[in-house]
Amino acid sequence: MPTFTAPDGTVLAYHVTGEGRPLLCLPGGPMQDSVYLGDLGGLTAHRTLIRLDLRGTGHSGVPRDPASYRCDRQVGDVEALREELGLERVDLLGHSAGANLAVLYAARHPERVDRLALVTPSVFAVGLAITAEDRLETARLRRDEPWFAPAYASLEAVTSGRAAPPDWDAVAPFWFSRWDDEARVFRAAEQQQRNDEAAALYASEGAFDPEAQRAALAAFTAPVLVLAGEYDVAAPVRVMKEYAGLFPHAELVVQSEAGHFPWRDGPETFVTTLAAFRDQALAGPPGT
């Protein structure tokens, strides 16, 4: 397992799997071990995936300064990995909270990004509003599921700010297209893979300047893919349309019957979408 040294001396790990053009992958969580990304539904048949273990997660070292867990402070880690890989420009994928880091990197180093894929992205970095009704309307698409009634009641409690601790676990079925034993195992592992101290600091004060970020993305000329899940209450389709509109050259794809982890819910569709985005982007220079 290869490692490199971040600007502050923290030793970070990354994982290389697959074949084809490299794709640098930033995990969400926030601050979750990149192992949950797996092979992104079989995308390794088309791309060499380079999964970064963010500082303090997975096989990466713990920094001396916990304040360096703040999202904007980690942009230097991504740039150091690009340099380590010897890539002049990168294709970059950010999932969920990892999309915040991806767009901060793209804004700071636009000349280093060939194309940008944002998968069910968090919107904190760009300051978009997700309303309670956005989430509830999306959730109601699942009204025929046997688990719907109690999960929806808990989601109402969460979105109204009156959630009790059990409500956060009760809404877990909404994150997946199928709430089965495999999803339960994935969910349990996810909770063990997150660095909670780091997660609490990831979006701390000063991490994001949404107005400046939106202005930077409006000038970002590389091709962008925003991939939303039809069932995703974390990144509802209405807001994902707004997100895609922040870029001059963005494509929005809504994966049918997919939740927050679309490569698990429909791997063939996910891989086809990512492969098509690669091929479209290769057809001409960035921004065409």
Measure the end-to-end span.
Answer: 37 Å
Main pleated-sheet profile? 8 strands, mixed
Helix proportion: 25-40%
Give the amount of beta strand, in percent: 15-25%
What Rg is obtained from the alpha carbons, in whole angstroms?
Answer: 18 Å
Number of strand segments:
8
Which strands sit side by side, in order, in the main sheet? 1-2-4-3-5-6-7-8
Q: What are the segments in which pLDDT stays under 50 over at least 5 consecutive residues?
A: 283-288
What's the quaternary structure here? single chain
Global structural class? alpha/beta
Mean pLDDT: 95
The geometry reads as: globular
Number of helices: 11
Topology as a string of helices (H) and strands (E) = EEEEHEHEHHHHHHEHEHH
Features:
alpha/beta; disordered C terminus; 288 residues
